[in-house]
Specification:
Layout (H helix, E strand, L loop, with lengths): L2 H21 L1 H30 L1
Keywords: Membrane, Transmembrane, Transmembrane helix
Length: 55
């Protein structure tokens, strides 16, 4: 993928996030809460897996 296209997509994504947070703050908060919960579930599952390997 050309560098210009990567930069364009990145800045477009950043602009969308800013727009989303400015005009839909409740929706943005729920989205980030969901992402955080998913990351915590993944970390917990990985921790349980490693604990199971060690015992």
């Amino acid at each position: 993928m050309p560098v210009f296209l990567k930069k364009l997509l990145f800045w477009g994504f950043v602009a969308f996030l800013i727009y989303f947070m400015a005009f839909r703050p409740d929706g943005a908060a729920q989205l980030f809460k969901g992402i955080g919960a998913a990351l915590m579930a993944i970390a917990q599952g990985l921790g349980d897996f490693l604990t199971g390997l060690m015992s």
